[in-house]
Amino acid sequence: MAPSTCEGSLAEFEGELEQLTQALPRRINADPERVEQGLAKLVLTLIELLRRLLEKQALRRIEAGSLTSEEIERMGVTFLRLEQKMAELRAHFGLEAEDLNLDLGPLGELL
Amino acid sequence: MQGTYIYGIVGFPPELARGIQGLGGNPVRLLPQGDVAAVMSPSPLSPWPLDEAHLILHETVVEDVMDTRPILPVRYNTLLRTEEAVIALLAERAQAFRSALERVAGRVEMGLRILWEPAAETGVAPDQEIEERGPGAEYLYQRLREERRRSRLRAEGETLIHELQASFLCLAVESCLHPLPTKRLLLTAAYLVDRDRVEAFRKLVTKVWDDFQQLQFLLTGPWPPYHFVNAPGIRNNGTFDL
Amino acid sequence: MPADLDPGVAEHRITLLETLDRVLNKGVVIAGDVTISVADVDLIFVGLRLLLSSVETARGLRLGREL
Questions:
Q1: Would C24 be classed as within a structural domain?
Q2: Which chain A residue is nearest to residue B185, measuring alpha carbons?
Q3: What is the value of ipTM here, to two decimals?
Q4: Is C51's Cβ below 8 Å from some Cβ in A?
């Protein structure tokens, strides 16, 4: 049955759907590399999870006013460096930022 | 052809109403174990390509079977080495399959996606002192602004979704929601609707849309019950909210 | 009318994307012992066993466990 919506927004829905489904693989993974890349994805996703948790913690402490300006600056620089390192690692394994996610089945996605 | 490709799970009997062609032109048949059966076709032991033709063919098989009886759709490229493996699988999960089949009997899934225009960013929050800041602090304060905005949006979105749900649940037996999956999408949802209420559901969505002109709705379906194969409370569409 | 503005084409693409989202990511999950459905869906759920199974498959080991 044809999707029903107002014609003007079809293109927009298409765009959002493409983002969500990230459907067809953009790269062809050669078999021997796939296991390594799979492991890298696992590890990097977990690092990304930790990074986000730590960042949220930092933001909460800033809001609570429990950090000095020096501490805020130091933490910020650390997060910036970590982000840069993550980008390098992703590039090394041929992963995009969107690749770092894990489907936990019934629990939904990790990130 | 050594392997078995699985399209879905059905109750058994009865046998399939008619001949259906599956992937690679192989015939689709049922492999029963007790009162449940796998909808299958013989298949080589390697994954099928991810292209439109094959994906649509898989979906067509599921929908053809659904024409005459309840089916639990199975994911694309589910291959088992032997028929014994299939039988073992069916035996092990018979109870879960049976309850799921009862839950979806005579029902279809309707898919809904809603676009919204969240209010524009309001600018620098007053409580932030404009002072000399290093790059680290600048980064974190920027992130703080982003997080605050995200929280506000999420709250706004959830209130709106709650309001919409009140209407949709009048005609849906169950729902599976994924709130705010992207910046532009307010909601992705699946509704389990009795077959004979699909038209009424469509009319309802149109009417609700009329009351919420600032939103854009996309309604698709009927679909096989992809989002309702697990027991309620266990959904494969949620996200951790960090 | 340019193809990408044609509502018929957009509708077709949306239908395809919606189908894709369902057949690839939703529905019953069965840990096939040859391969799991694409896009590493169950990578963490089955854990490293899944990664191993795609390697072990070549050696003919049978790991057909359901989740």
A1: yes
A2: A16
A3: 0.84
A4: yes
